[in-house]
Design brief:
The chain contains nine helices and 17 strands. With 349 residues, it is of the alpha/beta class.
Length: 349
């Protein structure tokens, strides 16, 4: 039996990891440390019996040390991060605080409990990062590899690059057993409505005849989230690769426009695609159920019903209504999106 600490485990990819680990290792215990900001929600992991949510901040080193010590934790899987390029442009400070200082806090706590206090036990610090640390690819550029030079282009990717370097440094300087994964764009159940694929599905499912997109030209390497977390677990299960970096992706690139057309086809929709700039700083959705419509602010999580009833907290994605609209289509990742659903490719130096 193992005891894990999963930071950011109430979010999208972290929550899917907790579900997957719980099914794979039903006798293990999983402590989820999450601040429950815009990206996290209790309901994401409410049905995982082995998971216990601790609402707290990864920058609280004393809290992390206490959890590691009192719960005899031997593995940290670090998902917690501020994300999204647009948010980092308007508010970079939060990205520095969480992604750099927060990661350093976790590393200090791990070093203190696992190394300095001489527990002598096997341990692993697995750091979740992004392929955005490598910069951008041109149309004729080769795919990123683990030896690609870092070239972050936003405060978000720069903060993740810095956290990657800290993890590497703790391995080489102090001997902490670490692994790092840089993944491409994920899609799947429990994803935020503002991400491009659930956004498209939501617009189509609610009957919109004009589907709004940003630019249709950028290409993405979309990976089904369960492929990604299965790759994480494969790395954690292996005793090989400590101190190394693994890139995870589908090795299949598709433009946003082609993705939208594929989803339109799968959902038998004749809606028109409209390319325009989308202001996601105050992203509103109108979702229709049998009792009327909800106007939902996906960033704040507030919702107002056509009857006048208002909900200030997070309703949107976790409500039965939106879950049935979005998850039903996202679950097609194993059968209905054959072009997008491909096995994750693990590349190791």
């Amino acid at each position: 039996m193992a005891n894990l600490l999963v930071t950011g485990g109430a979010g999208f990819i972290g929550g899917n990891f907790v579900h997957y680990w719980g099914k794979s290792y039903p006798d293990d215990t999983v402590t989820v440390l999450d601040c429950l900001t815009y990206a996290g929600n209790r309901s994401t992991i409410a049905d995982v019996p082995q998971a216990e949510l601790v609402v707290g901040d990864i920058r609280d080193t004393d809290l992390v040390e206490r959890l590691l010590r009192e719960r005899d934790i031997s593995t940290i899987v670090h998902f917690a991060a501020e994300s999204h390029v647009d948010r980092s442009i308007t508010g970079p400070d939060a990205f520095i605080d969480t992604n750099i200082l927060g990661t350093n806090s976790l590393l200090k706590a791990a070093r203190s409990i696992w190394l300095d206090q001489g527990s002598g036990r096997e341990h692993r610090f697995h750091h979740i990062s992004t392929d955005e640390v490598y910069g951008s690819l041109g149309p004729n550029d080769p795919a990123f590899s683990e030896t690609t030079q870092y070239a972050p282009n936003s405060p978000y990717s720069a903060s993740k690059a810095a956290s990657d370097h800290l993890v590497r440094a703790y391995h080489h300087t102090y001997g902490l057993n670490v692994t790092t994964t840089n993944c491409s764009n994920n899609y799947g159940p429990r994803q935020s409505l503002r991400a491009v694929i659930p956004d498209l599905i939501t617009q189509i499912a609610t009957g919109n005849k004009k589907i709004k997109l940003g630019s249709m030209h950028p290409t993405r390497d979309f990976t089904f989230v369960e492929d990604t977390v299965s790759a994480y677990i494969s790395i954690l299960e292996s005793n090989l690769g400590v101190g190394e970096v693994f890139n995870i992706g589908s090795n299949f690139e598709i433009s946003i426009g082609d993705t939208a057309n594929l989803i339109l086809s799968l959902m038998n929709s004749s809606a028109e695609l409209i390319s325009e700039d989308i202001d996601r700083s105050n992203y509103l959705y109108e979702l229709i159920d049998n009792s009327g419509s909800w106007i939902i602010d996906e960033f704040s999580g507030s919702a107002k019903h056509s009857s006048g009833f208002e909900l200030p907290g997070r309703i949107p994605y976790q409500s039965e209504m939106t879950a049935s609209l979005v998850d039903e289509v996202l679950e097609y990742g194993t059968c209905g999106l054959p072009s997008l659903q491909t096995s994750s490719a693990l590349h190791k130096v």
